[in-house]
Amino acid sequence: MQLNHLNDLARYLKEAAPVFGFHLEETQIELFQKYYQMLLAGNEKCNLTAITQPREVAVKHFLDSLTCLLALDFPPGAKVLDVGTGAGFPGLPLKIFRPDLDVLLMDSLHKRVVFLQETITHLGLISISAIQDRAEDFGRRENSRENYDIVVSRAVAKLSVLAEYCLPCVKIGGYFISQKGPDMDDELAESAKALAILGGRLLEVKRLQLPVIGDARSMVVIEKVKSTPGVYPRKAGTPAKKPIR
């Protein structure tokens, strides 16, 4: 990789992060640069992202991931689950910025999980791991059900479906953050019944624009107010085919 690409990534991070009140230490900038190198190398082996230019990666991937922290005050040492993490977003940037977090990255594709495991090792991070699993299966396991303080997910599925993937894993009193695009009104209306059945309560929809790029984003914050019924999540494939209406 050309050195100027790494320098550009650092420059855009330093320019954009303060807009949202984020201060990045030099060691964190270096970790993001290493992550960027791994991302481009991994992209040659499997489809990780169509976004590869320094400015877009810095803002649309790294900073966009950190905006979860604007939606909710993450407690020190919080257990965080990232469902459908793909190339590690938002969970891995959150871990770089908040080393105290205990993060689990979950994805259903083996190649992506291998990439994430190699990246975690290369970055020298601890208290973070990546596993291959389906959300429908993971949410039914005794040691993962209602075991996480915060569950995050970025653009994986419609909210009514995503809630069934994520809310079973959230502790009562914990939170689920869904990162979405700007147009959320129809999805919110369609998901109302699912949220109520699954034990969630809509707390806030935080809307923002990414600096430098200007893209609009929405973050849906859902509080877990009661236990999820044992029949959820349903077997793999069912939530997407037959969303709760």
From TrEMBL:
Q: Where in the cell is it found?
A: Cytoplasm
Entry-linked InterPro entries: rRNA_ssu_MeTfrase_G (IPR003682), SAM-dependent_MTases_sf (IPR029063)
Q: What class of enzyme is it?
A: transferase
Asked if the keyword Transferase belongs to this entry, the reply reads yes
Say if the entry is tagged with keyword Cytoplasm: yes
Enzyme Commission code = 2.1.1.-
Record's keyword terms, sorted:
Cytoplasm, Methyltransferase, rRNA processing, S-adenosyl-L-methionine, Transferase
A GO CC term assigned to this protein in UniProt: cytosol
UniProt-listed SUPFAM superfamilies: S-adenosyl-L-methionine-dependent methyltransferases
Amino-acid positions noted as binding S-adenosyl-L-methionine in the UniProt annotation, renumbered to this chain: G84, F89, A135, E136, R154
One annotated GO molecular function is:
rRNA (guanine-N7-)-methyltransferase activity
Pfam families reported for this sequence: GidB
Protein family: Belongs to the methyltransferase superfamily. RNA methyltransferase RsmG family.
Its job: Specifically methylates the N7 position of a guanine in 16S rRNA.
State the PANTHER family in the record: S-ADENOSYL-L-METHIONINE-DEPENDENT METHYLTRANSFERASES SUPERFAMILY PROTEIN
- Record's protein name: Ribosomal RNA small subunit methyltransferase G
* Gene symbol of the encoding locus: rsmG
